[in-house]
Amino acid sequence: MMEMEWQNEVKEETMVGPSFRVDTRRFSEKEYNKFVCLNPVRDWSMLNWKAVGRPYQVTTYAKEKKHWEMENGMDLPVHTSWELFNKSFHEWFIKDVPQELSDSKKALFKSLRTFRLPEAKALAGEYLRLHLWNYVHRIQDGIWDPRGKRALFEGLDVQKPRVLFLGAAEGYEAMQLGALYPGSEICLVDYDAYCRDTRFGEFPESYPFLGGSPATGGGKIYYKNDLHIEYVVDDIRSLPFGHEFDIVLSVGLLEHFPDELKSEVIDWHRKFLKPGGYVIMTTPRAQLRSKLYYEIMADIMNHTYRELMTIEQMGLYCYENGLDILRHGYIKVHNGIVAKVR
Ligand SMILES: C[S@@+](CC[C@H](N)C(=O)[O-])C[C@H]1O[C@@H](n2cnc3c(N)ncnc32)[C@H](O)[C@@H]1O
Fold first, then answer.
1. Which of 108, 155, 175, 205 is the most buried (most CB within 10 A)?
2. Best CA proximity match to 14, nearest among 138, 179, 152, 177
3. Residue 284's domain is classified under what CATH number?
4. Is residue 263, in this structure, part of any structural domain at all?
5. Which residue is closest in CA terms to ligand 1's atom 15?
């Protein structure tokens, strides 16, 4: 993955490298609503499942899952499904996308010229996936979406918070919180050791997170190595912590559990919060373009159960399971909720 040169002082800039975009642009009060659509629901007590419908289930799975199940004669265990997913997803984050697009185009034309049609079909699929990834991640910055996440996470009443990230993968959102709330003590938890060693371990040290400076009250850029981060490889269900965190966060976790397990997942957040602490959760949006994305990227993304939901559906799960929703809304590709225990 490319390491980009970036200055220490706050430069409000964006630039696109071979694998990803960096973006330290701020937004004015007026622009805020461009990056987050906030609080469309006035009163959660007025919503019900009949009105909001159930989440959309993604049912096109990765070939790797099907192969594993054929070879082993059993369903892919959930833990293994995450190991396969994390490895597969990480390989896309580190691609030199322009180079791969060019190589993929050449290979596609060569197979067309020589009438190797089944090969051309596979190469066309790869070329399409590369284009989609280029647009969604490298150009639009839809996955990391720093401006959207800052808009969603800002303004919490915390000082030097202890932050727990459940199912942390590479830990991006906790690092963004760490920049917004200087002095944060971050604990990343994932039961796939590859996330600690590779997804987080190889997260680019030069990636700038825009946050606040306690010294000047203005902005400051933070890098991964400026933050206080501990990585715990463990099952969320066996963590030894009590009610000790100011913020408990998850990103893309709730939608991987069917309805009968959602209360338990929401409880995982509540269980580790100090009284008055914040739950922050995000899940992918059920918009048409996301449905298409998960269809086209099925081989890379879909090793395990997955739903796409609306903010109304996500909020109703939280509301029904004892959370008081303080802020809710959606950013480019995710819904987000900031809540406290009721
Ligand atoms: C969909 S990922 C989170 C999305 C993430 N932002 C990404 O880019 O991949 C969910 C993560 O939760 C982890 N996870 C799922 N169940 C877990 C559990 N019971 N204990 C610990 N980690 C878990 C998986 O290993 C995976 O890395």
1. 175
2. 138
3. 3.40.50.150
4. yes
5. 167
Q: For ligand 1, atom 16, name the residue with the nearest CA.
A: 167
For the cut 90, the answer to whether the pLDDT of residue 2 exceeds it is no
**Distance linking the first and last C-alpha atoms of the chain:** 43
d(CA 342, CA 337): 14
φ, ψ of residue 33 in degrees (nearest 5): -75, -5
- Ligand 1 centroid distance, CA of 115 (Å): 42
What pLDDT band is residue 96 in, cutting at 50, 70 and 90? very high
* Span from the CA of 257 to the centroid of ligand 1 (angstroms): 12
pTM greater than 0.85:
yes
Half-sphere exposure of 85 (CA within 13 A, CB side): 23
Decide if 295 is inside a domain: yes
Domain holding 321, by residue range, is: 34-54+147-341
In a domain, 46, yes or no: yes
Atom of ligand 1 nearest to the CA of 173: 6
Ligand 1 pocket, residues with Cβ under 6 angstroms: 82, 86, 89, 167, 169, 189-192, 195, 235-237, 251-253
Domain count, the chain: 1
Which distant-in-sequence residues (6+ apart) come within 8 Å of 276 by Cβ?
340
Which of 137, 145, 191, 200 has the most ligand 1 atoms within 8 A of CB, as the residue to mutate? Answer: 191
CA dist., res. 58 & res. 122, Å (int)? 22
Q: Tens digit of pLDDT for each residue in 12-67? A: 889 999 999 999 998 877 777 778 888 889 999 999 999 999 999 999 999 999 99
**316 occurs within a structural domain:** yes
User: If you take atom 10 of ligand 1, which residue's CA is the nearest one?
Assistant: 167
